[in-house]
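User: Second chain of the day. Same drill as before.
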Amino acid sequence: MMSTATTEATHEGTPDSTSQDAVLVRIMSRLLFPLARLCLANGITLATVEEILKHAFVQEANALQPGSPMHGTVSRISTATGLTRREVTRLIKSETPVRSTKPPIATEVFARWTTDPHYQDQGGAPSVLKRQGPTPSFEALAQSITRDVHPRSMLDELVRLGLAQYDEELDSVALVRNEFVPRGEFQHMLDFLGDNVGDHLDAAVANVLHDGSRHLEQAVFADELSTESIKVLRPLVAEQWKALRDTMVTTILTLIESDRSAGRIQDQRMRIGLYTYDESMVNVGTPASKPTANPKRKYSSKEPKK
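Assistant: Same format as last time:
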C-alpha cells in the first residue's frame, strides 16, 4: 500500500555536537560527490577546488561578525577556519571569484516572448514576429526589456544561442525552442548550474541555520517505480512547470513595472525553480554519495516550514 509522509523543520531538541558533526560530514559527502564528478570530467584539479574552498571559508568567516574592528580580522578568521594567519592574509589580498546574480538579458527577452499574450498566437504559442515596428515586433519586445542593447544585437545573440531564427526574406523572427537551454553552449549551462543550485543551496542552508521559514523548499520523493512510470511522470512535470512559469513570469513582469512606476527601490531578487531527478535503485553509488532506499517508503513529500 502506498504511504505518504511530510517532514517539517522542527526544534524539538538540539542534538549533541558529535552526532550533529557526523550528520554534517555525511551530508557534505552527498553534496560534494556530484561536484567532484563535474570537476574530474572537465580537468579541474583538487588544488583549484581547494583554493576556491579556502576563499569561501574566509569570506563567510569574515561575514559572521559584521562591524567587528578591522585590526582583529585576520586573527578571527584564522581561529574560525583553522587556516594560518599568513594564509588568511594572502586570501584576503587575492582576488575572490565574483558571483553574478544578474541573468543575461537574452533570458528576459525569451521569457517575455514565451509568456506575454502580446507576443503569442491564439493558441498561446510564441508568435512569429516582424523584426521592426510597433508591438508586436521583435524590436518592441527587446525594447520592453532594455534600451541599453540594440534590438539587432539581441536578435543576433538569440540566433547564436540557437533559440531563434531570422528569415531575411520575410524580415521576421521565430523562436525555435520552447525552453531557454542554449544549444551547444557549455558555458551557459555551467552558469545555469551555478545559479540554480547555488540559490537552492543558499535557501536550504538558511532554513537549516534559522527557523526553517525563510525560504520555500519542498520536494516530492517516490521509489519503487517502473521505467514506464517514469516516462509518464516526465511530461506531467513539464506541463506543471510550463503552467507555473507562465503564471510567475507574467506576474513578475507586472510587479517590476508597478515598482518602477511607483518609484520603489528595486533592490531585491527572487528565483523560482522546479527540478526532477530519476535513476535506478540498483547500484546507485557509494553509501556516502547516495541515500539508502527505504523499502517501506513508497512515497514522501518533504516540506520544510513555510
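The longest strand covers residues 164-167.

User: Great, on to the next one.
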